[in-house]
Amino acid sequence: MADKTTTTTPPNLEEVVWRDDLIRWEGGLNVDIKKKKSDGDNDDDDGDESSDDGQSFLMDPFADPDPFQMFYFDFDLSCTNNKNGEEVDQADDTIDGKAEPNKTISLQIKGYKTDAEQVWQSTGLTLWRASHYLCEYQVEHSELFSNKRVLELGAGLGLNGILAWRLSCSGAGGTDDGTQEKSDVERISDEYTSEVCITDGDIDALVHLRDNVERNRPLTDSDDITTSTSKVSCHQLIWGDESSQKFLQHIAHNQKYNVLLASDIIYSPVIVEPLWETVQTLLEKKDGVFVMAFARRKVPVSIDLVLETAVEKGFRYELVKENLEDGIWVYEFRFR
């Protein structure tokens, strides 16, 4: 039977106009959000605020006339050797010359080219290399998403969150007899056995994120055959203790998450503290896990600062996957 899935797009909290260039160029997070909201309520804006709006009228004669890009992914659930972002040869995935069902998840993610002008304002409008590497981890550990509440932080175009959702739809990670084991913590509701919430703070990224969720919805039995039901939703989440507490109350209905995901989200020291405040607030303490892929970049923040702050906030961590040549590491964080 085809999986029943739901996308919850209307937010229960009012979304604010916020883009991640506020962090990269102005060095603020919650302070700038409050300032933006208060300025938005005032018809007599400062010249500084109006100058930002004026940028939309500037035309770059050398800009790419077609800055969009479609990213294609095929994830083979029968093995762990996936070619992310490339064409995948499915010749070996056959039984008696016929394709074996429910073994491949195909995703189409639409966004901008990495060198597009729009990416300078909102980095989440394209895909970055650590997200591909986190996808490999997700397929290798697909049991993480069975009968779980999953949330992606800083999702951007939503690749990792959408893959988590489709893995939960596929029934991957079940028990040997085909059933799904559910503890009291893992039991979501009578209607759904899995919930995936995909979030970003950037208002522009959210538009493309929601579009990509709809684009990758399983429609027929040939897409996903499953013994469970899965719910997916997209919401704005700006990191920090206060905003995360509101999110927990109004969006998550005071139910914390078993799994948090994130990739390529660290690009400024100012976001490290709010990030861990959010993880502290939303992650299930008993057996929750936060999986983060970190890529080495020419930015003023190192993985050492991220790990040190994690320990200060009461977490232990384990390096579970690495690619030294590409400078990408995947860590699992759990409460101590």
Contiguous helical run count: 10
Looking at the structure, what is the overall shape? globular
Order of helices and strands: EHHHEEEEHHEHEHEHEHEHEE
Quaternary structure classification: single chain
What's the Cα radius of gyration? 20 Å
Mean pLDDT across residues: 78
Structural class: alpha/beta
Low-confidence stretches: 30-59, 80-100, 174-190, 221-228
Straight-line N-to-C gap: 41 Å
DSSP strand tally:
12
Q: Into which percent range does the helicity of residues fall? A: 25-40%
What order do the strands of the largest sheet run in, or round the barrel if closed? 1-8-7-6-9-10-12-11
Measured by DSSP, the beta-strand proportion falls in 15-25%
Structure in a nutshell:
By secondary structure, this protein is an alpha/beta fold. The protein has ten helices and twelve strands.
Describe this structure in words.
The protein is of the alpha/beta class and 336 residues long. It is built from ten helices and twelve strands. The chain has helices at residues 21-26, 30-40, 47-54, 117-121, 129-140, 159-170, 203-215, 241-250, 272-282, 303-312, and strands spanning 5-8, 68-76, 94-95, 98-99, 104-112, 149-152, 194-200, 230-236, 259-263, 289-295, 315-323, 328-335. The chain has an eight-stranded mixed beta sheet, sandwiched between helices. The chain has a two-stranded antiparallel ribbon with strand order 2-5. The radius of gyration is 20 Å and the shape is globular. The termini are far apart. The relative contact order is 0.16. Mean pLDDT is 78; it is low at 30-59, 80-100, 174-190 and 221-228.
